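Please review this one:
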Amino acid sequence: MPLLGYKNQFASLVESGEKRQTIRAKRKRPFKAGDRLFHYVGLRTKACRKLLESDCVSAEEIMINENGDVFIDGRRISEGDKDSLAHADGFRDQGSSWEQMFYFFRKVHGLPFEGQLIKW
């Protein structure tokens, strides 16, 4: 029963179905296609709220390095694909979606980042 917690900035996108992927650090038990996913905002707080349930359709290895290169299952993706990846992951404020995502991951997780790109 994999739980996924989201920051408030992403909750409405998950709930509406606009955000159908997330990037997470590696876990002891990796996500895999077919897993039933439970999406929440405010986990471990009184304000905890379930956003939705879904089935995992894919879980790919992802790595973001200090130079801003992104590798999905070992394949380096193009600049245009990085912007599409960031937009799909909920980075939609003004400016470059990829730049927002890169700075978010550098600040929150540190680089290089290794994890999984989970889609539902």
